[in-house]
Structures are given as C-alpha cells and as structure tokens.
Amino acid sequence: MSDTTLNTDQELATQVVVLTPLAAEKVREILDAEQDDELALRVFVAGGGCSGLQYQMALTPIEDDDILTVYDGIRVVVDPVSAQYITGSEIDYKDGLMGAGFIVNNPNAVSSCGCGNSFRTGDDSGEAHSCSCGH
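Above: the chain's sequence. Below: its structure in token form.
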C-alpha cells in the first residue's frame, strides 16, 4: 500500500484525487455515522455508463495494493487500475435545487455524460452503454 499524507502544495499536486473542503466535510459526516475505524473512502472506476466508464465511491477497508492518501484526516484509497483514469481529479460536493451529491472533476476525461457520472479518456476505447441519467 502506498501511503501519502497531504502537507504541502507540492504533495497536493501529485495526489491521485483531492477532496474539496465541502466534500471532506460530507465524507467525514458519512464516516462518522458508520462508526467503523477500518473504513476509508474508496474512489474507483468501473465499466459502464453512457460514456464507457463511470465513477464509483464506497466505504471499504484498505487493500494491500491501494494508493492511500490521508486528506484532512480522511483516508482516501484508489486501486492502481482506477488511478490510471482519475489521477489529478478533484472531488467536490454540490447541493442545489436539482439535488445534491459528489462531483468528480477529472482532467483526464475527454468526454462525459450530461449527468457527470460517466466519462471517457483519450486512451479509452471502452464501449458506451446507456445510463439512467437520460443523456
């Protein structure tokens, strides 16, 4: 497991994913409600969605090959395969009239679905599938 703790702007620039302060606050609320110190926020990519790949997040224990970042006391893990697609991404949280949820701002995405949950990278030749967002 690769362990990284964010301390400087230089380290921040090299992280797989970064949480905005609001996203960190929401993740902390969710983790606190779970009351399980073994859990970390897992950010990963799965096949599917209308653009070929989709973002996923879950609370899971840390695996041996995970890339671990501790961000403001929150453990965030990414598996090595997903890291290829989402390195440099920022996870934010938006709350508005049309709903609330986490948003992934991914600099590697060359196209994405209107809902923002699925994407395609320049290296990806994945097959597109329909998703439930209506786009």
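The longest strand covers residues 40-47.
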